[in-house]
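Exercise 7.
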Amino acid sequence: MLAAERDALILLAGLRELHRDLLPPKRLAVLRNAGHLHFVANAEQGHEMLRTMWKSGSFPVATPDIDLAALAEASR
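Solution. The predicted structure, written as tokens, is:
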């Protein structure tokens, strides 16, 4: 399992819990100082584009209790 240390969408604590519950063989690697989009090409541009959409209020939200502005701030 590969996780990003600073992922604001898929929290590291939840991945650690999932990893704990997996049957062996298993291994968890945490990419330090990385966010959700650090696993794709042009990660920096994609990351900033997503943060901009979250901050603008133009991003569609499936669940109204998600605070996109807080998510954008947490995704620095």
